[in-house]
């Protein structure tokens, strides 16, 4: 390979610029065709993507079969016209469905985490991979394994929550689902953002991450290690720095830990614009040539957007700043993944399969099941839910009751109205002709306009129950100037957008935006029983609602089948089984709030205690579960031994239901300060009324180890407590000993 061809394998360009549509026909742009023919491009990002950043709309975007043909046009140039015939790697966004026209829109990751069902999530990711590969995409930039510290962060919806163990289990499931059908239908998973992106100061996107080395290894690195063990083929660097060293030029992370310790054998890609930030943001490089040198020597193999490598790497090589050896190393890693994906044997997409599989009813069914299991019943005083079939009328009120984009989340492609089942539509279909379903918007997400309150209150007064749907919006707007053209993140600007969460939208509080709380209060004062449903991307901290509204559901952004899932739960056709993957504070001043805090003599605040509004692992059911007979055998083991922990769980209510049995471990005395407890296992079970079962967990080094002062994972002798229950507050416990 020539030096230019080697550099080409390190370059990923924005794909939506590579094609044009003339007289209804797609054409590959001459400039890009020439670059492909010369071997100057190794990969395209977002070739199939549609959203406000790309400017690709429902009208201009590619339908499934057409998109597969467009990919094949590119591959024919690369394979049949270039000197070496190396296929292009098409990388696509698949955070909760392939971000392309017609792709199935699944619930956002925080909703999937609320299912506590990795097996179901693996099925969903396999479906996403199938849709993506049929159109020609062979890699994706998910899952996000950032351990969340501050939910004011706009990307909270893309995470699996605050717990490293839960993030690791869901992340590994995503990797297995995405890659399980390689080479025919699977795609390479890219785990991101490596590392500490969810631990930024103040929940601000890309801000520095104040992490010590022990916490970094125990929390933030743990999910990535599990994903690497599951076989992840790719990894993306984070924008932030950790202790002053940008992640994109951090050899300790990208080589010493990732490759030498963990044995990672895939390729490392930067986030969009991250390589340039070394010179233009972090200012650890004087120019782009030096930025390229730092990134390559640290362990970066490919640049998303390609600006620095394409524009400056040749100069850096010719001037002697960059050794050709590190370029060879990176190119070889990228080529290796192309071989493992089967692109050399079969670089072409399947238009017929794309038309058949993309957005299929089977995939929508999985999306619906995932949404159903991700709904969390936060409150249900007086058993207002499930709703009675004998109701005469229901008032459906609120800005998120009938806005289809508001229930989909960030990283979503444009959608035709008929593809999305809103809450209003789902309730109307469920209620049928027997129940009168009335609707009033009441207000919007943002702004102080209360002009719709009167109609909302009047609608509620005439109904047996009012379902008020509030929360947030990650819906990006077409035709405005709020999109960063480098990263795709939202730039806060005046306009018609209701967006209050999503990438680039970080907040200073967790209350409902605008006048939504006032709307809930006004409907409550009507005297009609009220159910509040949150549709949102970050947790809502509204103690008034928790205290005054008997029944509250957290649905997150539930995807295109969300309206059906919510209606199923409201009427009791589905018994809610979701559990919170994060803690919800009573007040933003309590932050950071998470359950696995290290033990301390720290005091409460003057104004308020330290307890959250809703704890990690919280989630109610329409039935009840009883835990008993917690035993561990043997009760003492050596450091390399194992024991079996068992507990009996019985459905003591009158309705079939699913329960998440949660295992926590408390290390009573450690060589370093230990958390009050840590999640170390869980199992989601289904029980009929009166049915009981025994759930067992293995207790060994994975459940007992810590990171010591030498940054080694070890099991220390001493006393432990093993705790089991349906949430992190109400737990049975049994003592356990690791012998010297």
Automatic annotation (TrEMBL):
- GO molecular function terms attached to this record: hydrolase activity
Task: List residues of the Fibronectin type III-like domain.
Answer: 659-728
UniProt keyword list: Glycosidase, Hydrolase
Source domain of life: Bacteria
Hey, what's the signal peptide range on this chain?
none
Q: Name one Pfam family in it.
A: Fn3-like
Keyword Hydrolase part of the UniProt annotation: yes
Q: In which family does this protein belong, per the annotation?
A: Belongs to the glycosyl hydrolase 3 family.
Tell me the PANTHER family matching this sequence: BETA-XYLOSIDASE (PTHR30620:SF123), PERIPLASMIC BETA-GLUCOSIDASE-RELATED (PTHR30620)
Query: What is the designated name of this protein?
Result: Glycoside hydrolase family 3 C-terminal domain-containing protein
Source species of the chain: Paenibacillus spongiae
